[in-house]
Amino acid sequence: MQSNYAQQRVKVQAIEVDTSFDAVSRAKLQQAVKVLDSILNCEAFAQKVLQTNFKIGNHGLTNTQILELIRSGADNYKDKPKDYSIDIRVAVFDPYAGYGNFGTTNMTTRITSTHRCFILNSEIQCYISHLAHEYMHQIGFYDEKKWALGTKTESVPYKIGNIVKALIGGKAPCVAQKQTFTK
Question: What are the residues whose beta carbons fall under 8 Å from the beta carbon of 81, sequence distance 6 or more?
Answer without folding.
Answer: 74
